[in-house]
Amino acid sequence: MKDKELATLSYKFAYVFILALPFIAPFFALDNYLRLCGKTNMSMWINVYVSILNIILDAILIGYFKLGIEYAALCSVLSMAIGTLIFLYPFIMKNVTLRFTKPKVDIKEILYIIYNGSSEFLSNISNSIMAIITNGFLLYYGGPVGVAAFSIVMYIDALISPILFGMIGSIQPVISYNYGAKEYKRITEFFKITCIVGFTISIVTMIIIFMLPDFLVGLFSSKSDVDIIYMGKIALLLSAPSYLFNWFTMSVGSFLTGLEKASESIVVMLVESVILPLILIITLTKVIGVYGIFVAPSIGGIISVTIAFILWRKSIKEEFENI
To answer: Would you give the end-to-end CA distance of the chain in angstroms?
Structure first.
């Protein structure tokens, strides 16, 4: 596939999402609000139904009618738009703690909320920016084959990361609540549990990748795509060790936000999502070409974990040592 064709397909896919943002953005906000109200099971099942609906629509529009890639984006948009309507129901019916009311705007509180949550906001923005930069380097050093190979890694990561994101995101309100209630022992217990589960998920994932790289790559590629399969396998194996580290960085970022340590959380985010990846990709690609992009997450993970641990330890001493 030529670069121009790849760019055209990417544009068609992204264009649908850009137009539909006003309809699908509330999906993510309402999902968080529902979980904050303690309706975690409801949130989970709505997300499951939305995912199943997306698969069904993809099967119909793409599989049966053989429509273009923009219709794949449309399937996702329609699924999330319907999910948004379902999410709205408990808030409109006042079946949850949070509900729609006439807003009372306190500028100072709003600014503080924005500041404390800015690490998550900046993380999402930086991930999108870094994805663009990474794809640029992939095209330059590896061509469309490099992009396709790394896409396989991202597909597999998309099966694991949501589990970690969901688990780690769910402890943030718990930490904030117990922090306000001065239940500091419970905070450390929740953090320990999160670390144990996060490490377990990550180590199992890494073991599976090292044991079954051919099978995993084969799930997302055709047997005739020999170059993509070869490079995809290398990309998967080189990036696999990053799972040993990323869960801890994510946990610390959520932990610091829950303790209202916005500055420390932002530092962890910037180091892990922007600074290290950018430096490593620029440096390593000059030495080992496209493979530098594949190994960057693992090397960056080691450094970011070290910085995250230092900031986590510092925050623990400041908050809990004298209690």
So the answer is: 62
